[in-house]
Amino acid sequence: MTAFDLSGRCAIITGANTGIGQAIAVGLARAGADIVAVGRSSMAETEGVVRSAGRDCLTVHADLSAGGAAAEVMEKSVALGARPDILVNNAGIIRRADALDFTEADWDDVLDTNLKSVFFLCQSFARSAIAEGRKAKIVNIASLLSFQGGIRVSSYTAAKSGLAGLTRLMANEWAAKGINVNAIAPGYVETNNTEALRADPERSAELLKRIPAGRWAKPDDMVGAAIFLAASASDYVHGTILPVDGGWLAR
Fold first, then answer.
1. Which residues in the chain land under pLDDT 70?
2. Residue 198 in contact with residue 216, Cβ under 8 Å?
3. Which of 219, 118, 215 is nearest to 170 (CA)?
4. What secondary structure, in 3-state letters, does 174-221 show?
5. Which residues of 173-209 are buried (b: 16+ CB within 10 A; e: fewer)?
6. Contact between residue 62 and residue 69 where contact means Cβ atoms under 8 Å apart
7. How far is the C-alpha of 229 from the C-alpha of 183, rounded, in Å?
8. What confidence score (pLDDT) does residue 193 get?
9. C-alpha to C-alpha distance for 125 and 170, rounded to whole angstroms
10. pLDDT tens digits, residue range 164-193?
């Protein structure tokens, strides 16, 4: 077994039906982990690819914006026979409007899904791991807006900034209990959440001009960092926010 081998491990991944979540689910499976795929819509495609990699894939349907849904994910996973020791919090939504026009509904929808649900799923996962005395890894999906302000995404910026802070807080409290809590901060990735930006030729060109790598990221570009933070290779890494951004923050 190498420091990046996930054989015998089990990972819960939220938002696993598409984009970054699907890529990470498949990547962790190819590294040896069984998968619990969590999402609101069908995860048949993810399940098929994971199983073709020779790993088991259970599915849990959940709307993480709903109160109490996050804690139920762990209960449902265990009821299906899973014993998860990796959690990847990827599910998220975005709303775009000028700060002067931003609505309370759009604020609440994003904060409930992108921040509140993440905390309570982490809490439920950590309680289970600590009670059973097993080591575990939590990988949160943060954002460049955990470091910057952005424009026209008030609630998304607040949520991702808050997630960076929560990642550090949970690392401080749980490192001595055998749980590593870290985050990946993706750059501009070709996903559903960035479709509006990519459809705007002027805005897309502005963004691309700043990326030293010269291209938008693919969801697969996040997989290596996810494997690292989920594997024993990162056992002494706690509370870090790892940018995978093509050099955006270095510019």
1. 1
2. yes
3. 118
4. HHHHCEEEEEEEECCECCHHHHHHHCCHHHHHHHHHHCCCCCCECHHH
5. ebeeebbbbbbbbbbbbbbebbeeeeeeeeebeebee
6. yes
7. 8
8. 77
9. 12
10. 999 999 999 999 999 999 999 999 999 887
In the sheet that 86-89 helps form, which strands lie side by side, from edge to edge?
57-61, 34-39, 10-14, 86-89, 136-141, 179-186, 241-244
**Rg of the chain on CA atoms, in Å:** 17
Token representation of residue 22: 């699907």
Residue 198: the pLDDT is 86
Chain-centroid distance, C-alpha 226:
9
Length of the chain: 251
Q: What's the confidence (pLDDT) of residue 1? A: 64
* pLDDT for the residue 126: 98
Domains (ranges, CATH) in the chain?
A: 10-191+219-241 (3.40.50.720)
* From 120, 156, 174, 216, the catalytic residue: 156
Say how far apart CA 178 and CA 244 lie, in whole Å: 25
Q: What would the two tokens of residue 175 be?
A: 């490192």
Residue 156 is a catalytic residue: yes
Name residue, tokens 């849904």: 69
